[in-house]
From TrEMBL:
InterPro entries (UniProt xref): Rv2632c-like, Rv2632c-like_sf
Top-level lineage group: Bacteria
Family matches, as Gene3D superfamilies: Rv1738
Pfam short name (any one): Rv2632c-like
Name recorded for this polypeptide: DUF1876 domain-containing protein
């Protein structure tokens, strides 16, 4: 049986104008470290305004960057603890 020992909550914030959506993703780790990432989406001038779509694209890009930052952090911690260079973690 598995037990949950820790949980993470990711906060997303969006800033929008008529043509652009920016997203910021942030996760606070149990050790108090905060990892932040950004995403961006642009609406082509002939496309209809659909703010939700801009949020989805910008949010997905921010989450993708957040995932890569977390992988980099994990590599650094593995390398620091082991004294060697770890193998890449592929996504």
């Amino acid at each position: 049986m598995m037990h949950t020992t820790v949980g993470w909550h990711v906060d997303m914030e969006f800033m929008e104008d008529d043509q652009h959506t920016r997203a910021v993703a942030m996760v606070r780790l149990p050790d108090g470290t905060e990892v932040r990432a950004h995403g961006h989406a642009s609406r082509h001038r002939v496309d209809s305004q659909q703010p939700r779509v801009g949020e989805e694209v910008a949010g997905a890009r921010a989450l993708n960057e957040l995932a890569m930052r977390l992988l980099t952090k994990a590599h650094e911690e593995i390398d620091s603890a082991s004294g060697r260079t770890s193998h890449p973690i592929h996504v």
